[in-house]
Amino acid sequence: MRVTRLATVLVLVAPLVGCSVSGPQPGDTANAFLAAFAKGDLAAAAGETDSPDTAKSQMAAVREALEPKSVRTKVEEVNQAEGASTANVSYTVTWDLGPGRTWTYENHIELRESDEQWQVHWSPTVIHPRLARQQAIAVQGQQPELAPVLDRDGNLVLAPSRVISVLLEKEKAGNVRAVAGALATALGRFDRTITQASILDGVNKTPAGQPYQVAALRQTDYDVVKPAIYDLPGVRFTSAPRLLANDKAFAPTLLPGIRKVVEADLTGKAGWRVITTDPAGAEVEELHAKAAEPAKAARTTLSVGVQNAAQAAVDAEPAPSMIVAMQPSTGELLAVAQNPVADKEGPVALMGRYPPGSTFKIVTAAAALAGGKVTGATPVGCPPTITVEGREIPNSGKFDKGTIPLSSAFAFSCNTTFAQLATQMGPSELTETAKRFGLGVDFVMPGATTVTGSVPPASNVVERAEDGFGQGKVVASPFGMALLVSTVATGTMPTPKLLDDATTEADSTVEPVSPQVLAGVRAMMREMVAITPALAAFPDLRGKTGTAQFGDGTHAHGWFVGYRGDLAFAVLLTGAEVSSKAVAAAARFLSGLS
């Protein structure tokens, strides 16, 4: 037996060198066939076989099915018995089927001599050893399931689900009004904004020839209404995987932003298979498979437990109400809760601009302590009113505490005291102090857009006096106030974060607050909690109430901000008129955590 070993990649035919045998050889034919096949010259490849028409047709069908970017072939060995008119050639073929898809296998070709010419004996096995007659080859993609989004403790926040889109094609609907009415009746239970009128309006605004998406339904919701809508004329359906909230009531204004950031990274790597199929298209056998690789779950810094406690604390409030909670040691957001009324206004807990009222006295107190002229024990006046350049500034209800320590003026929330302190400061003193606590710092935080607040310099002494107790031109968001009390808790403004694997960028770096100032502010916040009966169950809490007038000054928001251990939070009940309602919400929130 004569054995010839070849190690030539057959893109070009490599002639046998140093062979003493004259005349056509089986290796030459194998080389010619495989080189032509690799190049896609199927006519030339088929011409090297004993069944050119059949060979060309089957090779074309396989290449069409696989759509290779390139094909490489390599003869490994030629086996021929001495004087025999048959030979066997082993070879390796590598199909490049696109990014990440490479398929390599070994195969054999039988060659036969006829009229002193060698030809490839054609059979489907020439292409693949397990490809039989009347069979085809097909490639199937395998998409991995979307990875979920988890909270900080591993609880599901966003789960992969199948979403069914309900589409209406006006041209095929016939009586569009009747179809829209039927869809509205079936789908209105999931979304009250879906009405016959809204559907007709949407259809009429959709360009001709394009379908109008009436709704996107979870699979479970679709199954409920399918009998009522499946056979409606002009209605068709598409489905796709999507990340949906595991709990529909969980942070509805926050999760879309998280989904937008992480969804592309949760698709994983697609798998693929090469199979043989019978004439009916049914799968016969798997020839090659690369399993799909699911992505790693994304993690948000939110806590399901903290979020649910915050949500329960504000859900029943009649006006827009919200709580933002943060871990001071890391800046990680634990909860962003809004009641349904607030949800209609957008992510106001993160971006709303509200007068902070007396909660801003934390900043004014810090600025006064940093100036070195007062301490928490310094006696200060808390008269019912003061007048600053003709502007009367009263305490709430014009209460009078006489002369008391500054810490007590803070606890009783004497507007007159803190307005007077602010008049003794420079135009930018409150601005600079507030920034050390995070108010006025802008962040680019993946997953959500945030606004901390604004404390503009005040050259006018009246404006500065009003700023001193959180009125004037000072505004802050609940997010900004949660950042502020986080800074009180730790001494250094933390960088807020919403997603584990994302980095938040700040537009500026701020100096930490001095330990002496922090000690003074913390003592004031402790005293404020101590004189508030509704907070008696939380002796380790540090906080500040705030009533903030808005509009024409006849109505007020209610605030409470505070921290307890490694939890800082801000509560805002808009239009509550008094801070006691915000204190009650804070107590409900803290009680819900235990």
From TrEMBL:
UniProt keyword Signal present: yes
Keyword Nucleotide-binding attributed: no
Residue ranges annotated for the NTF2-like N-terminal transpeptidase domain, each copy included: 26-134
Signal sequence region: 1-22
Keywords: Signal
Domain Penicillin-binding protein transpeptidase: 322-583
InterPro entries for this protein: Beta-lactam/transpept (IPR050515), Beta-lactam/transpept-like (IPR012338), MecA_N (IPR007887), NTF2-like_dom_sf (IPR032710), PBP_dimer_sf (IPR036138), PCN-bd_Tpept (IPR001460)
Stated name of the protein: Penicillin-binding transpeptidase domain-containing protein
Species for this entry: Actinophytocola glycyrrhizae
